[in-house]
Amino acid sequence: MKILLTAALLFFTLTTYSQILKVDKGELDADSAEYFIGNINIDFNMNNRSSSADQDITFTGLNGKADLVYMSDKHAYILINNINYFKSTGGPLISTGYAHFRVNWLRKKTFSYESFSQIQYDDGRKMPMRRLLGSGVRWQVMNTDNSQIHLGTGVMFEYEEWISSELERTLVREIWKNSSYIGFDANINETVTFNGIAYFQGGMDTKSNIFRSRFSGDFSLSFTLTNNLSFSTSFSAQYEDRPIIKINNWVYSLTNGIKWEF
């Protein structure tokens, strides 16, 4: 399954348009219909900042994002893809990725509805599989020429697999959770845009009899170079209050790269 997911994510990264912030931008004209909009963002970094001349260590990272949106007369169909590879000399190849599909029903309304599903893996955190399915409501709080703010909340069912080194087996959790978010988009001037989204997901783990919650966010600052090309700096972070296995509660990434929009 992971091989198929990796292949699909890589295919979309190299041929098409993270979480919802990339597709809730003001450029999606609510009065227009029957068109596609897309975005490709590829970041690559490599360095050999070793601590000494005798210690030759090279760090290599590749991150690709590819999202595609189809705007019908009444609804919006959104496909979001992200894949990341990281390798250091002597260390294992770490790969993470997800594919997220979302439908915004009655998108022109101030209050609309959403259905979503996602498949994901994270080798670095020993999570070979995560699947979720859910739905909710979306509120367009503000929508002007230069800024947009939206809120969303709903219910989702989450399935996760975690590899426990201590127990030497895979732990499975199936949890019903609330999924809520706040997103924004701001055109600072004609060439600079800033957008982001913050999520809260929490629910009762009946198998362990504890409440588990997760906070995550994605933020992006873009500088327009041409009509279709821009330079972007992106920051992503995630915090889990009670992880299922012993891992870092807090993880983050900061990337710079080139983004092509169509």
Describe the protein's architecture and organization:
By secondary structure, the chain is mainly β. The chain has a single domain (2-261), classed as Porin (Beta Barrel), CATH 2.40.160. The protein contains one helix and twelve strands, in the order αββββββββββββ. The protein has one helix spanning 2-15, and strands spanning 35-47, 59-71, 76-88, 94-105, 111-122, 127-143, 147-164, 169-187, 192-205, 210-224, 229-240, 250-261. Strands 1-2-3-4-5-6-7-8-9-10-11-12 form a twelve-stranded antiparallel barrel. Strand 5 (111-122) and strand 6 (127-143) form a beta hairpin. The two termini are 30 Å apart. InterPro entries: DUF481 (IPR007433). Residues 1-18 form the signal peptide.
Order of SSEs, N→C?
A: HEEEEEEEEEEEE
Helix content: under 10%
**Biggest sheet details:** 12 strands, antiparallel, barrel
CATH topology: Porin
Number of DSSP E strands? 12
Number of domains: 1
What overall geometry do the principal axes of the alpha carbons give? globular
- In CATH terms, the superfamily is monomeric porin ompg
The overall average pLDDT, rounded, is: 82
Structural class: mainly beta
Under the CATH scheme, the architecture is Beta Barrel
Q: What would CATH call the class?
A: Mainly Beta
CA-CA gap between termini: 30 Å
Percent of residues in beta strands: over 45%
> In angstroms, what is the radius of gyration?
19 Å
- Cross-sheet strand order for the largest sheet: 1-2-3-4-5-6-7-8-9-10-11-12
Uncertain residue ranges:
1-28
The helix count comes to 1
Protein name: DUF481 domain-containing protein
InterPro entries: DUF481 (IPR007433)
Keywords: Signal
Pfam families: DUF481
